[in-house]
Amino acid sequence: MATPSAGGRPLHRAAGTNFGSMGLSNVTGYQAQQSEPESWLPSMPRHGRWEEESPSSWMPLESYGDALSSRGGPTEARAPKRAHTQRRPSNRDEFDGPHQFLERPAFDTTSPQDRDLLHLPTNLLVNEQDDILSQVNDCLSSCAFNFVARYQFPIPLEPDKRPVQIPADREWTEWVYLLKRLATKRRIPARLLYNGQIKQLVTVLENSMEMRHAAKHQSRPLKDDRNVLQLISAGLQVSKILKDASAMEFLDHLYLQTERLILSRKGAQIMTGSSQS
Fold first, then answer.
1. Strongest mean pLDDT among 21-30, 31-40, 81-90, 172-181
2. In angstroms, rounded to a whole number, what is the distance separating the alpha carbons of residues 38 and 54?
3. Tell me: the pLDDT tens digits for 60-72?
4. Would you say 6 and 26 are in contact if contact means Cβ atoms under 8 Å apart?
5. Which among 43, 121, 132, 255 counts the fewest CB atoms within 10 Å?
């Protein structure tokens, strides 16, 4: 085994040789030589970055490569930043931007608008209106139920509602919402509708939305005769676009019957007025 000497050259130690039998100067020289820094090692600065950072904070080469790749690297072209449009405050709308006002009309054009509105005839009694509108509501619910069942359209299950077994399990507004969603999601083929009017289906359904409110909320003001006939006609258009012949016949008969009742009441009022005069 080679052992160091005072001159820096290795000494070959014989087996069993004890350094204690050698001169102390050899050992002392060896220790003095080892205490001196090697000339090929770089001298660390006593102050600065190396003393401030602990080895635990040094980044491994693998992590450094990952960091470069995640940041795009020096050679990769970074993706351009997307321009974010400035959001308008929630309490502002398009009317707070550039706008204009129309010239105020002259007095002679506004005075007729201040007069009392034309009185539309109302010949149906409250219970008669409620009965007519309830019949239309029930007929439309059955029409939607039969349409969905005939062509096996899916009805989403809702935890707070029971599964549909009869038309009355859903209100007319809920049937309207279901049909509108099926139409906008392109679940209803145009061939199933009258003349393929898939775009008109949503408009026709929305025109009949007042039917449920008029039938269920009976505390609303009394409707004039033309409004009642208009609601029946809106339901008639729904049954037509869904190609439900029986519903069309029922609503058409109801429309004619209601119209005859209104005309008979008008005739009775005219006869009463002429006899009193």
1. 172-181
2. 24
3. 555 555 555 555 5
4. yes
5. 43
